[in-house]
Queue: 3 jobs
Job 1
Amino acid sequence: MSPRHLHQSLTAILCACLGMGLVACNEDNQPGTAPSEINPALAATAAPLFRVATAGWNHSCAISQENLAYCWGNNARGQLGTFDRVRRFTATPVKGGLLFENMDAGVRNTCGATDDDKAYCWGENLPSGTWTQPRLVDETLRFVQVTTGFNHFCGITPEGKAYCRGENTDGQLGDGSTVDRATAVPVAGTRNYRQISTSDYHTCAVTPGARAFCWGDNSFGQLGHGNTGGGSTSIHGCVPPPYSAILSSGGSLPEAHSPVRSPPMTWPTAGA
């Protein structure tokens, strides 16, 4: 099975914040050789209370009520942010003491936006290499929401502009090319976006007017413009109904993808 299909299957892991702030997981979170749990199991009894969680390929992360990040599971690429590559079977603090507003666990990496609008990633971050600790995505840009896919990162600035970096073989960065980018580049066009989500090789985002747009690989019609193909360097308007949020990876909770400063999302009937 290809990494793309593995990601689509394994990111079906769902971690949900329960009413008391505890985290429960079902399906096989594959932290190593530990057996699967048929019923939801408490992810970390000794950990603090969490307000949001995100599940990657075979690792999971959560943000505590104090905005500290914790991760557990596979750590072969440093995706837990613990300055090493040792697997963790319980929630372990991400090193650095950064305070996160939202985060997203990808296939072999993790990214988060801090309370001062800085984006950090750790794990495998092509074409820049593998990082075992959080590193700034960009020294100058600020981000209120971030998302990470197989080998690319995207984020939304406080002004609503979308930027992406990383692998771009299928045009998943949305800059009109298929050139890999080591630094974040703006998504083509003049649109503002309120929320963005990445998958293996494509990206989707929602505008303030509740319109969905997608770009990148379209082998299975995942760009939503009515057929396959024709997506590598173009940004396509997606299915007609208005949207308040979109998930293209299937592995993270909507709350983890929503800019924290946005007002409560509604369902407007018009807009671009």
Job 2
Amino acid sequence: MLLERQTALSGVFTLERGDFLDTDSVVEILWQPQTILERIPVGEKSNVYMTINNDSNLQRRARGQRSQFDDDCGAWTVGRSVISDYWRTPAGEFRYLFARNGQYCTEKLVCGKRTYLPLEPQPADDVYTIHRYYATQSDDGKAVYRKRVTWVSRDDFQPVALVEYVGMCKQEQVHGNRKGTGPVYVRTPSTIMKSVTEQVKTTSVKAVYDGMITSMDIDNAPRDERVVRNKKYNDSKNARNATGKAYRANFADEIQTLCSMVTNDDLVKSVTVNSGRVPHVVLCSERQLSEIKAFCFDKQCGSVLSFDKTYNLGSLYVTVGVYRNLALQRIGSGDIPIFIGPIFIHGNSDFETYAHFFSYLSIRLASCDCRQLRLGSDEEASVRKAMRHTFSLASLVCCTRHLKENLRRHASQVT
């Protein structure tokens, strides 16, 4: 009989030997689980195990998709899956089965050679198909933290999975695509992403995100609006690919077309091609530049010239500038309307790329007193560094909406 010792996390039990459970214990737990959690709980998980609801993953596998066992332990290496058949002997022990020529066999060494002997009679009802998923986190090439997920494919078993963690949790393990410093990458739970998929079909991205961060705790809610926007974009892209309606434009042809437009189009001002970098494009009209000169170079009463990078408008990023047109006023509300300003289309998002964009603007606005200019952005470091470099006399301000979102998201973590 397996003795379970519960930890501080509800439904989480200690691995007494500090290693994965043996097959007999695993099957015993999956046959009669004491506590079934809806998802892997948040918190430290070192040498522990738990039982979770696996129904959604079984449905995903039936559709040919991968299982999702998301947690808050940072990034894992690409996992591997193993499917094995076991025979429960009359003595109640589990023996690994080898399938050879359509028969279940046992393995024996005869004169140093592996020999497979068919079982007589062949087992039928006492065969258990056990699925195992393994993932690791390494330190200097050595696996220091391991994860195993096990479930049994039998009609008489509940749709549950046993999740085991062996070793000391390294929550500082960062995602491979993450750049810079900041909070550790934590994947948004798959159940939440599934809800996002349904909601964005009829509701705007902002409304979905605002609703989730106000109704969910911080461990479940999307970490920012970009998560919701990316999910909507990827779902739309997958739908287009599935129906054969994917965009097939050639990127080189598009850049060549833009280059030809520089000489005869008022909007396309610059196309820059550098070695080893994605070409970038500056779009702005003479009217926009005139209005920026008129409305933005007054530190007391003028408009802030703001820039924000937008995602998922295509294969490139789009950074959009906006300003308030102080010459106009809405009749109903009395508000001053916001106009779109210079637009920057780019593939890289580092300081050098943004410096090209703001250098062009600083040249076109050289006749103005930059000490009267206020430039706004979110907290993206490369944007602010490029602004400070090209408009050294201007004042830099932050977007209050981004600051409020960051405060609202991280306030609960302050003790």
Job 3
Amino acid sequence: MAMNVITTSDGGVLMHATSNDLYDNLRQLDIHLIKVDSAGNTTWAKNIALEKKFIKVYPNPANEYIGLLLPENFEYPANLEVYSMDGKLVMKKEIKYLNTIPIKNIENGIYQLKITNSNQAIYTQKLIIE
């Protein structure tokens, strides 16, 4: 759990914390907000559960191909884009179903992988090519 504490203008504090799903650390992100007044009394608290939009790239680091693990409710077709760290598009491919994606023509380095599906949901993941 990560926590931040911010002093408020009334002499109290606002605490902000995040935590991941206990079981797989992939599907849910919980946000916790707590307001404490200057006397140390909790004036309000709120918990927010958000579903993470995630992709998992394997193997990572990779050298010849990558596979993708996408959310269960992912809608195809989708566009896959691979960007270098300086923002240049080095690969673009339409994905019609889960498949193996060749990457052997991409130079070694660190890249950002971006997938946009038909609902315009955006998924990103770092990719290392060795």
